[in-house]
UniProtKB/TrEMBL annotation:
InterPro entries: ConA-like_dom_sf (IPR013320), Pentraxin_domain (IPR051005), PTX_dom (IPR001759). Belongs to the pentraxin family. It holds the Pfam family Pentaxin. The keyword Secreted applies. One of its GO terms (cellular component) is extracellular region. This is Pentraxin family member.
């Protein structure tokens, strides 16, 4: 009996290790993740289907916040550069996209507080062309960090800005609010696909991050609840 109990303990420990390494793999359709308080330890870590360098990308998400300070909406770091892809909502207005340390700021897009914002950002490493969309409105195209892909194993965090690879979180940079429908493609998807996403219609899910089949882990104070978007 004792040997059986020891075997079961080892099995449970092994399952714990597997679960800790791979996190949850879930269909989050109709769900949202909530980070309700400002902390330096509340976050969502996403595991993407990366198999090659990122030469282009589209990232989309919907978020809801009341906070008026700068806050990190999306942070992708690699061992060689913790500012490979960063998206910020700024206190002074506008959205800032950082690619490999360089940045552009887009003004004039919706950034309402206490309301859902549907956001997409695109970037092509060959040309550097980048564009942002919010609630169906798009920005003019700008040039950001052309001539070079993003290499290395990505660490992707929602809710915090990575000041180092996988860490270096600061409470005053954290996102406080709700997030849903996060998708990431390793290409610049068509404007029609982006419009479909914005309008909550059918679209091709992200091939790197897919909210309908998302592998993730959480830390700190994070809740999963039914989304009120499109109610």
């Amino acid at each position: 009996m004792e040997s059986v109990l020891k075997w079961m303990e080892k099995l449970l420990f092994l399952l714990f290790l597997i679960y800790g390494c791979y996190g949850e793999h879930q269909d989050l359709s109709g769900k949202k993740l909530i980070i309700p308080i400002e902390t330096s330890n509340s976050f969502v870590k996403l595991s993407g289907n990366f198999s090659k360098p990122v030469i282009a990308m589209t990232m989309c998400q919907r978020f809801f916040t009341e906070v008026h300070r700068d806050q990190s909406l999306f942070s992708l770091a690699t061992p060689s550069d913790f500012k490979d892809i960063n998206l910020w909502m700024q206190s002074k207005g506008g959205y800032k996209l950082i690619i490999r340390g360089d940045s552009v700021t887009i003004n004039g897009l919706p950034e309402n507080r206490n309301a859902w914002i549907s956001f997409c950002g695109t970037w092509d490493s060959k040309t550097g062309l980048t564009q942002m969309w919010a609630n169906g409105r798009r920005s003019a195209s700008k040039i950001l960090k052309p001539n070079g892909p993003i290499n290395g194993k990505p660490s992707i965090i929602l809710g915090q800005n990575q000041g180092s690879y996988g860490g270096g979180f600061v409470a005053l940079q954290s996102f406080v609010g709700d997030v849903t429908d996060v998708h990431f493609w390793d290409s610049v998807i068509s404007p029609c696909q982006i419009k479909s996403y914005m309008q909550g219609k059918n679209f091709t899910p992200g091939n790197i991050l897919n909210w309908k089949a998302l592998e993730f882990t959480t830390g700190g104070t994070v809740f999963k609840e039914i989304s009120d978007y499109n109610c």
